[in-house]
């Protein structure tokens, strides 16, 4: 397995800096092999069209870890049902992938690399197909928007109710969302911002800064109560370990608050013995849109504390600086279960702080929000 993983990682270095060319060749070859597949993708392929290829590439890098390899791919197979991907399509995608890798890598490609990717893709497709076949849920749920609140120019909090079938999720997980009225066949992942409930209601926190994707823009600026969304199966492992007796550290940046809020809500349903410390950072006080809701939870639960911080608001009456630096000042966190959610930069900085505190890696879970 070590040699297999080495070949995959080694060969990937030949194409990593040419992702755009790899993607273009993959989809051109895919649609040439089966023109009907084009109907499964959005009209405008930029950004969104890369998601299936990105999923395959990500999966190939997990092959060296059999446990995460298995569960990740099974959940990926369940998730890809929303694209209407069928068993026969996997073989076509495999041919297109190998052709794209060979073409993009050029003279550096060899037979060992070729066989490693063939074997990897065979394992990937087998696990994904098994995950899809074992799922009795629908490929996606229709959900009606119930409430929609704007916070400033670029942030919204909305709730929706999944219709017809219960949607099972765990606090800390994320789902893919489509806004079919405005952007059909374009999906974007969002963390669910509340713990599971009997009403089948999900809450989302959405921010659409400059350069954000179409789905986020529609959810913030165009969606209103009564509109219908599509929501796909939940994914993600940033969930609570209910058997743990360790205290809990939660670190949230911006709309990274969403899964953290869900985790705190779940803890509120059963916790009596674990101290829970939430650090919530943003640029300015106006960006701390969820602070009031957190403070309401603090008032009801003596084991919970919330520390807000602003990085670019010198007049803020609280902690100043990047949230990772604030967390460092309050440490060490060596004996805690740690959950981190926010931008890639914020998550990396916080993980460095936790590593310096010698937090065991298995006690840290995180979720990164990209600029999509």
From TrEMBL:
Reaction(s) the record says it catalyses: 2 nitric oxide + NADH + 2 O2 = 2 nitrate + NAD(+) + H(+); 2 nitric oxide + NADPH + 2 O2 = 2 nitrate + NADP(+) + H(+)
Cofactor or coenzyme needed: heme b; FAD
Assigned keywords, A-Z: 2Fe-2S, Heme, Iron, Iron-sulfur, Metal-binding, NAD, NADP, Oxygen transport, Transport
Keyword Transcription in annotation: no
The protein's Enzyme Commission number: 1.14.12.17
Cited Pfam families: FAD_binding_6, Globin, NAD_binding_1
Name of the protein described by the UniProt record: nitric oxide dioxygenase
């Amino acid at each position: 397995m070590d040699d297999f993983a080495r070949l995959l990682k080694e060969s990937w270095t030949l194409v990593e800096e040419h992702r755009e060319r790899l993607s273009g060749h993959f989809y051109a070859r895919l649609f040439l092999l089966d023109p009907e597949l084009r109907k499964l993708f959005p009209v405008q392929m930029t950004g969104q069209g890369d998601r299936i290829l990105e999923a395959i590439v990500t999966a190939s890098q997990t092959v060296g870890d059999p446990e995460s390899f298995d569960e990740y791919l099974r959940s990926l197979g369940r998730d890809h049902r929303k694209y209407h991907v069928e068993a026969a399509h996997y073989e076509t995608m495999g041919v297109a992938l190998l052709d794209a890798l060979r073409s993009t890598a050029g003279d550096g490609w060899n037979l060992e690399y070729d066989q490693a990717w063939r074997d990897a893709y065979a394992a990937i497709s087998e696990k994904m197909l098994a995950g899809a076949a074992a799922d009795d849920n629908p490929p996606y749920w229709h959900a009606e928007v119930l409430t929609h609140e704007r916070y400033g120019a670029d942030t919204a909090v909305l709730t929706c109710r999944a219709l017809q079938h219960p949607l099972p999720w765990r606090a800390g997980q994320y789902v893919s969302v489509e806004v079919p009225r405005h952007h059909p066949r374009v999906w974007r992942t969002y963390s669910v911002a509340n713990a599971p409930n009997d009403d089948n209601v999900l809450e989302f926190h959405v921010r659409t800064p400059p350069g954000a994707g179409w789905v986020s823009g529609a959810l913030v600026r165009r969606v209103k109560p009564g509109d219908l969304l599509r929501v796909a199966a939940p994914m993600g492992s940033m969930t609570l370990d209910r058997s743990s007796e360790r205290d809990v550290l939660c670190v949230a940046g911006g709309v990274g608050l969403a899964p953290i809020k869900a985790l705190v809500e779940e803890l509120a349903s059963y916790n009596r013995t674990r101290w829970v410390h939430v650090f919530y950072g943003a640029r300015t006080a106006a960006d701390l849109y969820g602070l009031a809701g957190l403070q309401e939870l603090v008032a009801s639960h003596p084991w919970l504390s919330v520390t807000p911080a602003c990085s670019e608001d010198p007049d803020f009456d609280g902690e100043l600086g990047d949230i990772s630096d604030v967390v460092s000042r309050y440490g060490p966190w060596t004996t805690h279960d740690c959950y981190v959610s926010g931008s890639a930069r914020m998550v990396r900085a916080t993980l460095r702080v936790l590593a310096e505190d010698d937090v065991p890696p298995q006690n840290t879970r995180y979720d990164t929000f990209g600029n999509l």
